[in-house]
C-alpha cells in the first residue's frame, strides 16, 4: 500500500503538472484526430445562454480531474468504504510528510520536580473551538470549494493547478503543526463527503469490531518495521476515530445535530451544484457534455448574467448567482430534510413503535445517501460515459443501481444495538479462545471466528466446561477490555453490559465484585479522571510494546550487562529511561512519535520496575481503603436525622456495599504483601491495612482456603493482628454536610440499589442537592433500573407538587427490611414484595380493625402511631401503642384467628403496607429459613403473652 500511495501521488502530481504544461493531451482532443475517442466535434452545438460555444482541441487535465477522478472517488467510498479511500488518498499521504521525516512541531514541557525536558506532539484538543466545530468548518470549506469550481477553476487549468498545490501545501503544513491525521480529521473539505458515503460501512469494506480484533484496523495510522511487519502509529489525535472503526464513529455521532446538518445540507448542495449549470446555461447538455471543463473563457464570464431562464438572461452576475444558488439549495435541503425527518419518524413509530430513535435516524440517513448517490451519477462523469457504446452505457447505469441497492440492503438493518452485540460477541469469542475450551465438537468443522454473534452466545450457553469460574473469568476479560478501550466506564458498565451478563448468567453482585477486582489489579482502570478511549489505549499499548521490545533486544545482546543496569534502577541509582537511552535516545524519539506526555512516559517506564510498581499500587489501594473507611464511619455514626429504623436499614445496605469493596481491595493488598518478605514499606502497608479494615480483615485472615498465615511473612501477620487489637476512639456523629458529600460519592457506584438508597438518603438530608442529583440521573441514559428511576422522580415530585404521600418500591424495601420478622427474607423476595404490596392511607381516629374480625392480610405500619384497644375478661380497657415499622397482626394471620383488639389511628396520618395472606403463605413455603425464623419469633411472642396473662 505504501508503494500504491507513492504511485497515486506521483500520478496526481503529474496531472497537476499537466495543468501548467501539456503538449500531449490536446492531440487527443484535436477535431482532426482519426483514432482518438476524445476528439471534439465542432459540428455539435453546445448552447450557453442561447449561443453555441466555440469548440476546439483542449488539454484534458481539468476534464479528467472533474469528469473522471472525482466521480470515481464517490463510487469508491460507497463500494469499498471510507478505509479504502483514506489509504489511497494522495492528499492524506502527503499530509504525513513531516511525520515521516520526524520533524513535526512539538511543545516543550519541563518536569517541575526533576527539571527534565520533554517534547510532546501538538494535538488539537477535543474541547477547543476547532475540536467542537470542525465538521462545520469542513463543510464551509467544501461550500467554498464548490463555488470556486463554478466560478474559477472548472476549466481554468492554471487556477485549478494553483488550487490543488495550495491544498497540498495546506495539508503538509497542518501535518507539521499538529500530530496524527489532523488534516483529514479537522480540515479536509472532502471529509464530510467521505462520512456521507462511507459510513457506517461500504459495500465491501472490512469490519473492525468483529472477528479477531487486531491492533491495526481499517485505515488507522501505521508504520513499517525494518522486518516488514506493520505496527500502530496512532497518536489518538481524534476520538472516536473513523480510521480505526468507521461504524463505531457513525453510531457515536448519529444522534447529534451536526450530522443532520451534514446529511441534509450536503444533499441540497449536490442538487444545487448540478442544477446551477442548467440555470446558468438554459439546458442540460452543457452539463452532460462536460463543456464546462474546457471553457477557456471561464474567468471572463464572472460578471455575465448568472441565470438564463425561459430564454431570458437574468442580470445577476455569475459571481453572485452561483454562491447564492448553492447556498439556497443547501439551506432548502436542510429544511426539507428536517421536515421529512419528522414525518418519517412519526409514520414509522405508528407502524413499528419498537424502533429506537437511533434506528429511525439511521434509516433516514441511509435513504438520503442512497438517493443522493444515484442523483449524483445521473450527471457525474457523463462526458466520458457518453463516449462508450450504448450497450455499455446501459450496463453502467444498471451497475450503479445494483451497487447502490445492495449497499442499501446491507446497511438498512444495521443498529447500534446490533453493533454492540456483535462487538461484545467478538470479545466473548476472544475469551473462549484464551480459555482453550474444546469447542470443535459443537462447530461441525467451522472455526470459532466464523460464528455470528447469536451463535457465539448459544455456544457459550451449551459448552460443558464453560460454567462457574470459567464464566466469571471470561466475563472479567470482557469487562477489562471494555474498560481499557473506553467502551464502558465503572459507572456505565453495569447497564451497557446488561445483555452480556444475562447471556452468561452473571449476577449484578458478581459484576460489582469483578469490577472491584479489576480496580485492585490495575487501580488506574477505574480512575474517573482518566479519559479512556480505544484510540488512546492503542497509542499507549503500541508505545509499551516498543519499549518492551527495546528491553528484549538489549537482553539478547547482553543479559549480564542489562541485569547490572536494571539492578541500578532498582537501587534508584538510575532511571529506566537512562538504561534504555544509553545507546541513542530511543525512548525520547518513541515518546515523540506516539505523542506520549511526560506523565504517561513516567508511568509506563516506572511499571518496568516491579518493586516500584508494587509500591505504587499498594499506595493507591490504601488511599481507596482510607476513603472507604471514612465512608464506613459516616454510615455507622450518621447524623441524628437519619437515626430512624427504616433509614438505618438503608445505611446498612450502603455499609454492605462498602464492606464488599473493602474485602476485595484488602485481598489485593494482602497479595502485594505476599511478594515482600518484610521491611519498612511492607510494615507500613500492613499497619495501614490493619487500621483501615477492622470490620473485614479478621474474616479474611481466618479464611482457610486462602491460608494467609502461611502465605505471608510471620512478622507481617503479627503486625496485622496487633493493629486489629488496637482500640480506637468512638467517633462522633458526622455533620449533615459531611454526610451529604459521602452519599454523593456513593451515588457514583454502579450498583443500582446503592445508587437508589444513596439518592433517597441524600434527599432526606438536603432536598436541594437530592433534586440536583435526581435531575442528573434522569437526564442520563443509564436509567434502566425502575427503582432508581422512581426514586429520582419521587424526589422531584415532592418538591414541585403538594400531593398525597407516595411510597416508592425503594421505601417499601427499606421498611420491609427494617421489620424484625420480614428482614430475614431473601433479598430477591424482599425486592419482589416491595414491588407487589400496596399501601393504604388512614386519617386520625380511623379504625383499621374492630376486635373480633378475621384478618386476611398482614399489615405493616410504615409511619404514624396506632392504638390497640383491647377489653380483657374483667371488662377493663387495655391500650397498647404501636409505633412505626411494626406488624399489627402477625399472630392472627398465622393462626387465622380473630383480631385481639380494635386498632385506631392516633396520629394525623398513618401509612400501612398490606401484604396479602396468600402471598405471605407463599413466602413461608418458598423460604425455609424465613419459616423457621417466623416460628421462632412467634413462639417467643406467645410465651411472652402467656407470661403476661398468668401474671
Describe the structure.
This protein is an alpha+beta fold and 951 residues long. The chain is 61% helix and 8% strand. The protein is built from 43 helices and 16 strands. Strands 9-16-11-14 form a 4-stranded antiparallel sheet. It has a 4-stranded antiparallel sheet with strand order 10-15-12-13, with no helix packed on it. Strand 3 and strand 4 (117-121) form a beta hairpin. The chain is elongated, with a radius of gyration of 37 Å. The relative contact order is 0.05.
Topology summary:
Blueprint: H1 2-20, H2 25-28, E1 47-48, E2 51-52, H3 61-88, H4 90-94, H5 97-101, E3 106-110, E4 117-121, H6 129-153, H7 157-177, H8 182-187, H9 191-198, E5 222-224, E6 230-232, H10 246-253, H11 257-281, H12 285-288, E7 305-309, E8 312-317, H13 318-351, H14 357-379, H15 382-385, H16 390-412, H17 416-434, H18 440-443, H19 453-462, H20 469-484, H21 493-496, H22 498-504, H23 508-521, H24 534-557, H25 559-570, H26 576-580, H27 586-593, H28 598-606, H29 610-636, H30 645-674, H31 680-692, H32 697-701, H33 708-711, H34 714-725, H35 736-746, H36 752-765, H37 767-779, H38 786-800, H39 809-818, H40 827-836, E9 839-843, E10 847-849, E11 857-863, E12 866-871, E13 877-882, E14 886-887, H41 890-895, E15 902-905, E16 909-916, H42 917-926, H43 928-950
Antiparallel strand pairs: 1-2, 3-4, 5-6, 7-8, 9-16, 10-15, 11-14, 11-16, 12-13, 12-15
Helix pairs in contact: 1-3, 1-7, 3-9, 6-11, 6-13, 11-13, 11-14, 13-14, 14-16, 17-19, 17-20, 20-23, 23-30, 24-25, 29-30, 29-31, 30-31, 30-36, 30-39, 31-34, 35-36, 36-37, 36-38, 37-38, 39-40
Amino acid at each position: 500500500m505504501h508503494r500504491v500511495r507513492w504511485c497515486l501521488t506521483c500520478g496526481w502530481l503529474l496531472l497537476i503538472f499537466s495543468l501548467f504544461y501539456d503538449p500531449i493531451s490536446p492531440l487527443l482532443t484535436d477535431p482532426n484526430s482519426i483514432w482518438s475517442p476524445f476528439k471534439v466535434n465542432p459540428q455539435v452545438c453546445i448552447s450557453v445562454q442561447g449561443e453555441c460555444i466555440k469548440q476546439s482541441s483542449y488539454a484534458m487535465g481539468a476534464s479528467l480531474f472533474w469528469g473522471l477522478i472525482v466521480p470515481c472517488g464517490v463510487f469508491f467510498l460507497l463500494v469499498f468504504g471510507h478505509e479504502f479511500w483514506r489509504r489511497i488518498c494522495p492528499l492524506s499521504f502527503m499530509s504525513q510528510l513531516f511525520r515521516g521525516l520526524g520533524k513535526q512541531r512539538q511543545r516543550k514541557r519541563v518536569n517541575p520536580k526533576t527539571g527534565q525536558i520533554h517534547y510532546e506532539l501538538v494535538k488539537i484538543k477535543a474541547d477547543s473551538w476547532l475540536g467542537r466545530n470542525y465538521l462545520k468548518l469542513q463543510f464551509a470549506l467544501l461550500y467554498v470549494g464548490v463555488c470556486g469550481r463554478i466560478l474559477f477553476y472548472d476549466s481554468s487549468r492554471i487556477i485549478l493547478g494553483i488550487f490543488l498545490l495550495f491544498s497540498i501545501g495546506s495539508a503538509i503544513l497542518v501535518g507539521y503543526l499538529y500530530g496524527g491525521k489532523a488534516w483529514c480529521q479537522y480540515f479536509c473539505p472532502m471529509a464530510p463527503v467521505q462520512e456521507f458515503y462511507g459510513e457506517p460501512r461500504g459495500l465491501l469494506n472490512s469490519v473492525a469490531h468483529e472477528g479477531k480484533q487486531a491492533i491495526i484496523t481499517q485505515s488507522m495510522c501505521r508504520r513499517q518495521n525494518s522486518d516488514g511487519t506493520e505496527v500502530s502509529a496512532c497518536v489518538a489525535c481524534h476520538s472516536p476515530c473513523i480510521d480505526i472503526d468507521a461504524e463505531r464513529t457513525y453510531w457515536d455521532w448519529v444522534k447529534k445535530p451536526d450530522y443532520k446538518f451534514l446529511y441534509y445540507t450536503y444533499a441540497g448542495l449536490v442538487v444545487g451544484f448540478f442544477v446551477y449549470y442548467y440555470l446558468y446555461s438554459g439546458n442540460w447538455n452543457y452539463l452532460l457534455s462536460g463543456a464546462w471543463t474546457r471553457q477557456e473563457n471561464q474567468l471572463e464570464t464572472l460578471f455575465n448574467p448568472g441565470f438564463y431562464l425561459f430564454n431570458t438572461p437574468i442580470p445577476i452576475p455569475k459571481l453572485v448567482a452561483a454562491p447564492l444558488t448553492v447556498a439556497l439549495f443547501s439551506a432548502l435541503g436542510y429544511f426539507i430534510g428536517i421536515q421529512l425527518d419528522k414525518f418519517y419518524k412519526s409514520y414509522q413509530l405508528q407502524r413499528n413503535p419498537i424502533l429506537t430513535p437511533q434506528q429511525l435516524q439511521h434509516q433516514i440517513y441511509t435513504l438520503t445517501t442512497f438517493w443522493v448517490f444515484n442523483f449524483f451519477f445521473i450527471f457525474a462523469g457523463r462526458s466520458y460515459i457518453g463516449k462508450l457504446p450504448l450497450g455499455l452505457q446501459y450496463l453502467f447505469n444498471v451497475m450503479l443501481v445494483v451497487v447502490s441497492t445492495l449497499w442499501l440492503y446491507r446497511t438498512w438493518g444495521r443498529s447500534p444495538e446490533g453493533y454492540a452485540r456483535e462487538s461484545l460477541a467478538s470479545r466473548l469469542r476472544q475469551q473462549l479462545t484464551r480459555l482453550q475450551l474444546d469447542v470443535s465438537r459443537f462447530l461441525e468443522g467451522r472455526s470459532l471466528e466464523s460464528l455470528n454473534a447469536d451463535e457465539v452466545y448459544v455456544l457459550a450457553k451449551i459448552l460443558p466446561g464453560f460454567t462457574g469460574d470459567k464464566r466469571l473469568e471470561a466475563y472479567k476479560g470482557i469487562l477489562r477490555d471494555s474498560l481499557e478501550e473506553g467502551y464502558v466506564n465503572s459507572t456505565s458498565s453495569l447497564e451497557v453490559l446488561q445483555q452480556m451478563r444475562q447471556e452468561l448468567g452473571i449476577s449484578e453482585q458478581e459484576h460489582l465484585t469483578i469490577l472491584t477486582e479489576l480496580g485492585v489489579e490495575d487501580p488506574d482502570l477505574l480512575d474517573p479522571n482518566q479519559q479512556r478511549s480505544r484510540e488512546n489505549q492503542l497509542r499507549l499499548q503500541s508505545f509499551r510494546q516498543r519499549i518492551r521490545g527495546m528491553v528484549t533486544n538489549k537482553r539478547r545482546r547482553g543479559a549480564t550487562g542489562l541485569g547490572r543496569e536494571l539492578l541500578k534502577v532498582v537501587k534508584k541509582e538510575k532511571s529506566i529511561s537512562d538504561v534504555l537511552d544509553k545507546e541513542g535516545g530511543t525512548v525520547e524519539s518513541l515518546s515523540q512519535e506516539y505523542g506520549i506526555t511526560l506523565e504517561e512516559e513516567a508511568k509506563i517506564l516506572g511499571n518496568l520496575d516491579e518493586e516500584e510498581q508494587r509500591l505504587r499500587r499498594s499506595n493507591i489501594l490504601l488511599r481507596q481503603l482510607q476513603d472507604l473507611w471514612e465512608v464506613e464511619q459516616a454510615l455507622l455514626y450518621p447524623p441524628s436525622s437519619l437515626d430512624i429504623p427504616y433509614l438505618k436499614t438503608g445505611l446498612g445496605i450502603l455499609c454492605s456495599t462498602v464492606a464488599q469493596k473493602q474485602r476485595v481491595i484488602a485481598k489485593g493488598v494482602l497479595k502485594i504483601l505476599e511478594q515482600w518478605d518484610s521491611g519498612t514499606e511492607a510494615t507500613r502497608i500492613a499497619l495501614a491495612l490493619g487500621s483501615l479494615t477492622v470490620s473485614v480483615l479478621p474474616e479474611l485472615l481466618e479464611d482457610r482456603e486462602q491460608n494467609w498465615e502461611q502465605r505471608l511473612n510471620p512478622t507481617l501477620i503479627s503486625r496485622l493482628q496487633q493493629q486489629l487489637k488496637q482500640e480506637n476512639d468512638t467517633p462522633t456523629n458526622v455533620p449533615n454536610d459531611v454526610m451529604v458529600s459521602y452519599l454523593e460519592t456513593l451515588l457514583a457506584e454502579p450498583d443500582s440499589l446503592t445508587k437508589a438508597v444513596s439518592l433517597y438518603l441524600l434527599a432526606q438530608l438536603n432536598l436541594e442537592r437530592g433534586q440536583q442529583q435526581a435531575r442528573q440521573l434522569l437526564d442520563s441514559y443509564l436509567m434502566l433500573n425502575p427503582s432508581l428511576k422512581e426514586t429520582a422522580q419521587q424526589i422531584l415530585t415532592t418538591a414541585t407538587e403538594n400531593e398525597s404521600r407516595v411510597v416508592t418500591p425503594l421505601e417499601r424495601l427499606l421498611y420491609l427490611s427494617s421489620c424484625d420478622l420480614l428482614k430475614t427474607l431473601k433479598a430477591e423476595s424482599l425486592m419482589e414484595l416491595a414491588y407487589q404490596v400496596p399501601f393504604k392511607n388512614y386519617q386520625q381516629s380511623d379504625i383499621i380493625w374492630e376486635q373480633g374480625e378475621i384478618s386476611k392480610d398482614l399489615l405493616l405500619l410504615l409511619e404514624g402511631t396506632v392504638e390497640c384497644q383491647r377489653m380483657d375478661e374483667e371488662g377493663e380497657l387495655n391500650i397498647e401503642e404501636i409505633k412505626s415499622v411494626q406488624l399489627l397482626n402477625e399472630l392472627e394471620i398465622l393462626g387465622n384467628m380473630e383480631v385481639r383488639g380494635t386498632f385506631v389511628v392516633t396520629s394525623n396520618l398513618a401509612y400501612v403496607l398490606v401484604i396479602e395472606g396468600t402471598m405471605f403463605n407463599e413466602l413461608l413455603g418458598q423460604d425455609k429459613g424465613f419459616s423457621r425464623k417466623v416460628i421462632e419469633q412467634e413462639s417467643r411472642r406467645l410465651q411472652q403473652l402467656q407470661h403476661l396473662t398468668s401474671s
